[in-house]
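Mods, move this if it's the wrong board.
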Amino acid sequence: MTLPVRAPRPLSRLYMTLAGLCVAMPAVALELSWPEGAERVAQGGGPTAGFSLATGAFDGSEVPALSLDGDLAEEVWRIPLDTGPTETVLALLREQLGAQGFELGFACADRACGGFDFRYALPIADAPEMHVDIGRFHYLTAARRTPQGQEHMAITLSRGGQNGYVHLAHVAPAGAPAAAVTASSSQVVPAPGAASGLIARLTSTGSAVLADVTFGTGAASLSDARVDSLVTLAAFLAENPSRRVVMVGHTDTEGSLESNIALSRVRAGAVRAYLIEVLGADPSQIEAEGIGYLAPRAANTDPDGREANRRVEVVLIEE
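Not the wrong board. Structure tokens:
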């Protein structure tokens, strides 16, 4: 279908009181944690017919899209950029939507989306509440099944001045009103030392240990818990699409060299999969290798040394 360029929506349509939104609130709200200082600056909603959710980039004549009917909830959040780049916020949202049962759909960024034509073909909130830099924005869709039917999310994220801006549009089946996004009681705060300085070390020395990615002896799986260093790395890759990295797995000396090389490759692959499947990183930017116990960080004679050697490092490939 072809989406015509729309006229700006009156801002009054995006405003509602909290009391109004609570009239038909569903049993399970969508809950997201936000960086410190984030503020919801506009919200609204109601029945919708033909809400457009992009399924592809602008191809020169149209933006492929789903036309959705149901109940719509929209919000705009303003986020101080001193908490981190907009790509970090995007990675956080991807992770949290996945944890709440959403499957990620179409995603694109600025020129790859279609720039001006893409942005103004879709029902994205307008200034002054929502700022969209045509040369630097991200668009993401996600969906999940519920007993009432399919729910859809469209997220547009950009920046203006010293702030990032996020427009969330949530369409639920008619009769099952879309939930307003509830800010979690816990804000997003990186684990001490886990991600701090990671990109600086990576870009200055060419490699960095992912300190909060840990494995037990013989284990190769990552838990579903948030991994701050990987959120930081995913944001760096999203912001620098020409950069490529290799995840390199390492082990302690328990077992044969052959088995440890195989195990270290599986560990590196698990980290690569987390970046791609949970955080939405581009697979073409990430490789995975393993070298077993051939490059220890510490002696393998005590538990602390063996734990230090069971690790994954990220290595930057020359552009």
